[in-house]
Amino acid sequence: MKVKKLVIVITMLTVFMLQPVGGNAASSLDKINKDLAAAKKQIEQAQQIARNADAKKEDITGKKEDAQQAILKLNNQLNQVVDNMNYVQGQVDAKEVDLQKAGKELDKAEEQVKERDELLQSRLKLMYENGVVSYLDVLFSATSFSDFIDRFDSLQSILSQDRSILEQHKKDKVMVAEKKANVETALGEVKTMYTKLQKYKSELNDKEQEKEVLIANYNKEIEELEDISQEQEDQLIALAKTVADLNKKKNAIKNPYSGGKLGMPIRGTFRISSNYGYRIHPITHVKKLHTGIDFAAKQGTAIYAAESGVVIVAQAWSGYGNAVIIDHGNGLWTLYGHIRNGGIKVEKGQSVKKGQKIAEVGSTGNSTGPHLHFEVRKNEVTVNPAGYLK
Fold it and tell me: What is the pLDDT of residue 7?
């Protein structure tokens, strides 16, 4: 909706600015000055819209960075949870092995108790069937008193030993059963822990997806604001043409450009950091036409007019930051962007000569470091500056 409103505003401004003026009024200096003042006011209004869009874009970009940092933290937490899950799974496996072992021990203990119990029952049954006489027969068949005592002690020892073994087996059975119960409890606890970790992991994944959706929405908003900034730049060019036409009447360009090589807009130590053509934007990370050549240089490095002409723009403008546009005549313009604050050395309407210092390198607007963004436009449309600088 904002973009549509902006388009309507731009259309109205352009129609207003390009309406023909007839008769003697068209050639009067007073009329030209009034039109120039109106154009300046409209540029300032459009510039305020651009500043608001840039401020909002900066705010959303900050929120996007916060969301990205949150995702990094969530990823770290997810990695930790996965490590814990792997560790707990190892405990689950170990407890299951222990449980199997305890089960086998319990089965063995139960079998021993059963066998000993059956043996004891067998002896009791024998006693029941044969009566005490059989034991008395054993005792009274002794050949002497000492033999009787020995036989009596032996019988007591046998019965006592049977009872002791049976009691010990019962104790072992209880102990093994308790051990098995403890292992089952421990296994239940680690399985519960694993389930909790799974739930936590699921919650973290949900949060990560929420952040991804949030970032996608931020990217969409930034893209819309980028469209507004692009329309602002397009509006700058349209208004600059109007100012150029008015300035032609007020201060006609002497010796308009008729061809030939342009002068280098920067000298000394510099490097070309980006050429004209499509590239991945260093800030928005979106593939977009880079409309000029970037000359990376130190802050404050002098910028020179590539050709003689009249300054038609000398102010801050949206993504260009502080910018200067020079009209060289015959539809040729040069644009100098990202000038540092206080670095513009010319004024709108001023005539400049080729090689004259007009500004200083900065990093205003959409910039990742000090550099000069240099454009060449033919009839308002960008062309590759390299063909003019060779």
Answer: 41
2 with 8: CB under 8 angstroms? no
Enter the tokens of residue 8. Answer: 């309507």
The DSSP code sequence of 207-252 is: HHHHHHHHHHHHHHHHHHHHHHHHHHHHHHHHHHHHHHHHHHHHSP
Contacts of 13 (CB under 8 A, 6+ apart): 42, 46, 235, 238, 239
pLDDT tier for residue 93 given thresholds of 50, 70 and 90 = confident
One-letter amino acid for residue 221 of the chain: E
User: For residue 107, is pLDDT > 80?
Assistant: no
SS3 339: strand
> What digits encode the pLDDT tens for the residues 186-216?
667 767 776 776 777 677 677 777 767 766 7
Backbone angles phi, psi at 205, to 5 degrees: -60, -40
Write out the two tokens for 331. Answer: 């539809």
- DSSP-H helix ranges across 20-144: 29-130, 132-140
How far is residue 132's CA from residue 94's CA, in Å, rounded to a whole number? 54
Compute the Cα dihedral for 357, 358, 362, 366 and give only its sign: negative
Residue given tokens 């222990």 in the structure block: 98
The predicted structure's pLDDT at residue 339: 97
Per-residue pLDDT, averaged over 84-96, amounts to 70
Contacts 24+ apart (CB under 8 A), 286-294: 286/223, 286/226, 289/382, 291/375, 291/382, 292/335, 292/337, 292/373, 292/374, 292/375, 292/376, 292/382, 292/385, 293/373, 293/374, 293/385, 293/386, 293/389, 294/371, 294/372, 294/373, 294/374
Looking at residue 4, its pLDDT comes to 43
Strand partners for 189: none
CA distances from 133 to 42, 325, 371 (A): 132, 133, 121
Residues 269 and 143: their CA atoms lie apart, in Å, by 129
Measuring CA to CA, which residue among 246, 311, 239 is closest to residue 29? 246
Question: What token pair was written down for 311?
Answer: 């300054």
Start-to-end CA span in the chain (Å) = 44
**Per-residue pLDDT for 302 more than 90?**
yes
Contact 6, 231 (CB under 8 A): yes
Above 90 in pLDDT, residue 353?
yes
